[in-house]
Prior knowledge:
The complex is a heterodimer of chains A (121) and B (107).
Chain A: E1 3-7, E2 11-12, E3 18-25, E4 35-41, E5 48-54, E6 59-61, E7 69-73, E8 79-84, E9 93-100, E10 110-111, E11 115-119
Parallel strand pairs in A: 2-11
Antiparallel strand pairs in A: 1-3, 3-8, 4-5, 4-9, 5-6, 7-8, 9-10, 9-11
Chain B: E1 4-7, E2 10-13, E3 19-25, E4 33-38, E5 45-49, E6 53-54, E7 62-67, E8 70-75, E9 85-90, E10 97-98, E11 102-106
Parallel strand pairs in B: 2-11
Antiparallel strand pairs in B: 1-3, 3-8, 4-5, 4-9, 5-6, 7-8, 9-10, 9-11
Amino acid sequence: QVTLKESGPVLVKPTETLTLTCTVSGFSLSNARMGVSWIRQPPGKAPEWLAHIFSTDQKAYHTSLQNRLTISKGTSESQVVLMMTNMDPVDTATYYCALTARGGYGPFDYWGQGTLVTVSS
Amino acid sequence: DIQMTQSPSTLSASVGDRVTITCRASQSISHWLAWFQQKPGEAPKLLIYQASILESGVSSRFSGTRSGTEFTLTISSLQPDDFATYYCQHYNSFPWTFGQGTKVEIK
Lengths: 121, 107
C-alpha cells in the first residue's frame, strides 16, 4: 500500500522560507516509474502544480514561481523536500505531495492528506 | 503555459441526472489529461487518465472523451456520493496545470 504524508510548519511569517517534507511509504523513490510533485490549493480555489522530481533527480518547476522553489530528495531515501522562499500571505494554502507511478509523468495515482500552511505575521 | 478552461464552474443537478463537464486546453495536449474528484477536506481522487481510461476501482458511471483539445467528463447517472468538485489537469508537458473546477451541487 502506497501512502504519502506531508510534514512541516503550520504557520510561517512573511519573508520566511517554508520547508515541507513528503514521506513516501510502499514505493521506492529510486523506482524508474516514480515521480513526485508538490501541489498547493488556496482555500476555495483550484489546485496549483508547483514542482516535480523524477527518480533520475530531473526536476521541473512552476513557471512564475521557479525562482522561489527548490524540490529535492531528502536525506532519507523515502522523502521529497520542497523549499519555498520569501513566503507571502497569498501563499497560504493546503500543500499536497502526490506521486505518479507511471514512468514519472502524471497522472497522480496517490496523494498525501495535505498540510495547511498559513502565512501571517 | 497551457491553460485549461473548465466549464461550467457550478452545476446543479438531481440524483439520476446525466452530467457533463467540459475542459478545453489552450493548445494540443494529445490525450494527456486526467480528471479528479475532490470532496471538502480531502485530497483529489483520480477518476480518469489519458482522457478516457477509467482508474481502477472507479465506478463505470464515470467516463471521459476527447475531441481535439476539448475533453469531457460524463457522469451517466448522478449518485449522492458524486456531489463534489471536479478538476481536469493536463500532463502533456511542464508546467502541468489544472482547470478552475466544477462544483456539482444538489438541485
